[in-house]
Design a protein that fits this description.
The protein is an alpha+beta fold and 117 residues long. 19% of the residues lie in helices and 32% in strands. The protein starts with a strand and ends in a 17-residue tail after the last strand.
Length: 117
């Protein structure tokens, strides 16, 4: 079992969610987060250019069985990537983290492991 955590642009959430649903991945957790990396976004505040320290993003978490891992990551990448001139996307498109999921327990039925996902 794996936990797929994707940090994406806010505007890409609907596109990513719809792509996941079309590929049979319907159980996701979404939260609003802020952070910074290579992306710098200037704003005008009281007539001055300001670069905020933290940029709003969306965090999508999906617990998957091994057989759904590649499908999940490929779906997120294709839906979240902005289409630049060279089709490699743009700075700020996001990141995907994949971590081992030691245990999963469904509270309602006490199912464990892959059955709980």
């Amino acid at each position: 079992m794996k936990l797929v955590t994707a940090i994406i642009r806010e505007v890409q959430l609907d596109q990513v969610r719809e792509a996941l649903i079309q590929n049979g991945i319907t159980r996701i957790t979404v939260s609003q987060v802020s952070g910074h990396g290579q992306q710098h976004q200037e704003e005008i505040y009281r007539g001055r250019k300001v670069t905020p320290n933290l940029v709003p993003k969306i965090r999508v978490e999906i617990a998957v069985n091994e057989k759904f891992l590649d499908l999940t990551t490929k779906t997120i990448i294709s839906a979240a990537r902005t289409q630049g001139i060279d089709s490699e996307g743009e700075v700020g498109d996001g990141k995907i983290f994949i971590t081992n999921l030691e245990e999963c327990i469904r509270i309602r039925t006490n199912e464990r492991g892959t059955d709980a996902i």
